[in-house]
Amino acid sequence: MDPEVGDSLSPDEIAEIESHAEAYFEDVLALAACSVDDMRRGLRDLDDRWGPEFLTPPEHPVEWTLRPLVDWARCILHLELYRHSSDLTHLETAVAQSYLAVLGLGDREDGVLLRDLHHGWIYAARGNALLDRYDRGGPPGHLDEAVYRFEQAVELAGAEESQFGAWLAHAHYLRWCDGDGTPADLDAAIDGMADALRAAGPDGVHRGMRANNLGSFHLTRFEDFGRREDIKAALEHTAEAVRYSEGYPDSCAYLLKHAHAMHRAHDAGHGESAGAVSEAFRRAVSAAGRFASPQGPAGAEQWLDWAARRGEWAEAAEAGQAGIAIVETLLDRQLHDGYKEVWLGELTGLFGDAAHALARAGRPEEAVVAAERGRAVILSDRFPDTQIGLEEVVDFAGVRRAAVDAPLVYLIAAHTGGLALIVTADGAPRAVELPDLTWDRLHAEFETFGRRVHAERGNGAVRRIGIDAFAGWLGRAVMGPLLAQLPGVAEIVALPFGLLALAPLHAAWWPVGDARRYAVQELAIGYAPSARTLLSARRRACEITGRAVLAIAEPQPVSARPLPAAVPEADMVLSQLPGRVLTGPEATIDAVLAGWATAQVLHFACHGEADTARPMDSALLLAGDERLSLDRLLDAGLPEVRLVTLSACQTNVGGTRLPDEANSLAAGLAIAAAGGVLGSLWRVDDAAAAELMARFYVAWHVDGQPPVRALRVAQLALLEGEPATWRHPYFWAGFSLVGG
After folding, report:
1. In the structure, what pLDDT confidence band is assigned to residue 176 with cuts at 50, 70 and 90?
2. Which of 176, 457, 473, 645 could make an SS bond with 678 (beta carbons 3.0 to 4.6 A apart)?
3. Cα separation of 542 and 272, whole Å?
4. Contact predicate 222/238, CB 8 Å
5. Angle at 448 between CA 446 and CA 452, to 5 degrees
6. Strands 619-622, 626-629: parallel, antiparallel or unpaired by DSSP?
7. Helix, strand or coil for residue 619?
């Protein structure tokens, strides 16, 4: 409010404003403690009264003064709805409304007639919204502003509202945990939360939350500095929190924290029995399942790890399956695809860990189902069409149907150890332990590989060293031990988890005397995102018998380097198959999508770009630098085709942020539209790629080999032929076949 307006108010008008503000403040706080349905009704009432017509200041000073409180009310109600439902749409709305509330206050000298306590609650609401968003992957600036807003709230309210001090203590704690603080932040967090706990009184409504937070802070200090008194305090305060939260949604987080404290106390030799710790985890994860708590998957992971380290694999399997059930419930509640990525990113390999635990517990069929469900959860979210018939395949009989033509091999780098699950058309699945294939070791090896192959693009020698080293490790850790269990097998379909989806398994090698033996020399290796998508791809391969080709060769103009072998490569394809070519300026997005409708084979000889952070934005580069992204391709509702060849750079490179990510251009097309997709894992050599493609099409179209075996024929021709420089896997191993 303008100071002149405030100065013009009569004492009665000022009293009316203060009365309305106080009543409104109390009503909203009461509403925030009500049921979800009541909170939603309250939001509708706010929207009815404070719609778009109130974007400009009302004439009545009471309404204008109340406007920041209305925005504050929307903020805290959406924040509470987020905490009840785990729907991040509510959290984003709360952040936006908190901004408007603080903006409405403006400078505190502007005459807005709200009590200091009301100002404090508005600043604190802003801090809480920012903290929750920061906790769900928001930028670091959110934490810094949250600390500042809580400090404002504490300064304004003093001892009148101890909750502000509790929130400030929590912000200090986060600053320490995220590496931006000092030990003084952790000490301030513990002291501040202890003060807030004392202020709550023996039966205070906030006592459970504050006790849990104080226990967490002591536990962190114990883990960081080893003080014995801290682990005792952590057990005491987390147990108190559990007592105060019985039967409420918050109890999930408190039970999990108490179980974790018991776990740490046991490991440190402070008296907690292993059985008591296990039962605490079981109780906590069970509560998380009942309330669909977002802390549930992480708690299940902690429990699984605790059981696995003790060799209690049946218990670890129980933990993993409980965590999977919670994940599936949580994902159903995330309404926005971007928000689902947040939850998916927090799984950190839960499905793989569960599969490994089930296999170690002697339940290989259930391990296969857990692995396939992990693939299905991510793929059915990313590609909704894959939900059709999903229930048919998420059982062992459904997976086995996909193994009719060749054995399926799930490859998993779990936190608890590596695992291959071999599924054939008959008989029980076999589990092969791969002890060197751990989550941590795979990420370390892949980091070096990725840095050499993808980051240092201008240095071919560095790329070759990176491929050679990574393929050698794959031979020792994965393919060597696996193929020793598959004597006489001519073909497999690999279903790799996580970063293994970006690995050239067919290029894995091991020494044989003074020479090398590559996996591709032993058998043909196809790839699939899941058993369900493999079945769909094979159906298309059987039903689509035509071979009419649409070739796209060196679109121009583009900002990327020329591809002199692209047009001859397209001419070679057209010498084998009927069809036409789009080249130069005619190779636009519209022309490609129009031509797709009459083709059964698509061949792209152009540049491609992999976006590992946002794989749906990975794209083919067409005329005028138009980007034909995976997202655009899937939205176009393309007709099904027999084969798509992506003779372009990095078209089979997916994301690295999500666990078990399979969103490369090649995988996306195999899931949605193609019987098989030939894609590249790195920037391929133009001449070698053209030669490989020529041999592939002859083996497939002329000799009648299935695509995966035709690709093997072409790769062996380069590996075992001339020129000798092409025998390095950089030249022949960049391509892999997804689908059938």
Report:
1. very high
2. 645
3. 60
4. no
5. 115
6. antiparallel
7. strand
Binned at pLDDT 50, 70 and 90, residue 291 comes out as confident
Q: What is the pLDDT of residues 561-587, one digit of tens each?
A: 888 888 999 999 999 999 999 999 999
**Residue 255 identity:** L
Q: Is the pLDDT reported for residue 524 higher than 60?
A: yes
38-82: pLDDT as tens digits: 777 777 776 665 554 444 444 555 555 567 878 888 888 888 888
Cα 395–397–401 angle (5° rounding)? 120
Nearest to 179 by CA among 220, 123, 233, 234: 220
Sheet holding 408-414, edge to edge: 430-434, 417-423, 408-414, 491-496, 524-527, 735-739, 674-680, 641-646, 601-605, 549-555, 579-584
- Specify the pLDDT at position 5: 43
b or e along 71-84 (b: 16 or more beta carbons within 10 Å of the residue's beta carbon)? bbbbbbbbbbbbbe
Q: Which domains does the chain have, with CATH numbers?
A: 10-51+60-159 (no CATH), 161-263 (1.25.40), 403-526 (3.30.420), 544-739 (3.40.50.1460)
User: Between helices 531-543 and 665-672, what is the axis angle to 10°?
Assistant: 70
Band of pLDDT at residue 205, cut at 50, 70 and 90? low
Write the pLDDT tens digit of every residue in 70-82: 888 888 888 888 8
Q: How far apart are CA 587 and CA 566, in angstroms?
A: 13
Q: Which of 11, 156, 28 is nearest to 97 (CA)?
A: 28
- Does an H or E element contain 454, and which? none
In this structure, are strands 608-609 and 601-605 parallel, antiparallel, or unpaired?
Answer: unpaired
Asked if pLDDT for residue 615 goes beyond 70, the answer is no
d(CA 628, CA 622): 7
Q: From CA 47, how far away is CA 45, in angstroms rounded?
A: 5
DSSP string, 466-495: HHHHHHHHHIIIIIHHHHTT-TT--EEEEE
Q: Which residues contact 227 (CB under 8 A, 6 or more apart)?
A: 221
**Bridge partners (DSSP) listed for residue 608:** 620
Give yes or no for a contact between 180 and 211, defined as CB atoms under 8 angstroms apart.
no
* The two structure tokens encoding residue 515: 């020479």
Report the chain's terminal Cα–Cα distance, integer Å: 68
**CB–CB of 79/132 below 8 Å?**
yes
- Report pTM: 0.80
Contact 82, 94 (CB under 8 A): yes
Residue 348: alpha-carbon gap to chain centroid = 8
Selected residue with higher pLDDT from 328 and 282: 282
